[in-house]
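Case 330 in the screening queue. Each case pairs one protein sequence with one candidate compound; here the compound is iron/sulfur cluster. For every case the pipeline is the same: read the inputs, emit a complex structure as tokens, and attach any notable structural observations.

Predict complex for case 330.
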Amino acid sequence: MSHLVDTFGRVHDNLRISVTDRCNIRCYYCMPEHATDFQPRSEILTFEEVERFVRVAVGLGVKKIRLTGGEPLLRRDLPVLVEKLAAVPGIRDIALTTNGVLLEGLAKPLYDAGLRRINVHLDTLDRERFRQITRRDDLDKVLRGIDACQELGYGPIKINTVAVKNLIEPDIVPLARFGRERGIEIRYIEFMPLDSQSLWDLNRVLLMDDMIAMLTREIGPLEAIPDQDPRAPATEFRFLDGVGSVGFVASVSKPFCLNCNRIRLTADGHFRYCLFAIEEMNVKAMIRGGASDAEIAEAVQANVRAKWIGHQINSAQFVPPPRPMYAIGG
Ligand code: SF4
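Case 330 output:
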């Protein structure tokens, strides 16, 4: 089995697959209220095309899959895709990131299809603030979705919270308390320049160290969990009182690109070696153009070999990617 190794020696075995660019909420730091630039259905990869690409990727050493969006639960019959991918020999782990609005109704079919790991994007437990951030009134649905996953035995369940400064501060501690009570890890993700309205600014990023200080002051001391996988995007901490843990994806303040093992496939079939990549490779055109698995594998390997050292968020040369987050997938 050949592997996806770049010129920095990084081995890529974690494939993130976006299954749609559409979403049923409108987080103001991600998508405009009246977003319309979604891909037509004909441009979205079919389940068979996704499965074929995954088989090629497994041949190149991919072991882990994360399904994302937009909002992946909007994709009809998603449990069918999960079942197909869970059956691909060599795939050891399938996870999903969702906003949880449709989760209550799909938790069981997805579980029966083989899904076990889930991240729910939730920035607040306050109904009014949820409405302010997402421009939808769906907090209750999200919480019922989390309940359903806990009842079914999903694990681990994590909550992803986008840490936007001057917005999320009142929620940092209540979310951590919720996680401690429910045995759910809260993942605070530093706000990244991937929004479609260029709202991002370094001064709008709530930094990992600031959040640690807040949690330590309000709840109690934290310590880094030892022996963490250096390739994992989040740095995990546990409370010294033994109750619960939190994680920080500190892409801005503590970039972790030198250990990156992630590659991406967009819903419309473009391969990206990095979340912030400027160039991308059109896998869909190869698949629909009659390319063989070997030709696709070779093209993917060549693309990864050309992978840059990492994002340039903190440099004056930084250029945002040509696609917003919802058209790439988390
Ligand atoms: S920014 Fe790109 S290189 Fe860095 S960790 Fe994310 S995907 Fe990997």
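Case 330 observations:
- The mean pLDDT is 96.
- The domain at 14-328 is CATH 3.20.20.70 (TIM Barrel).
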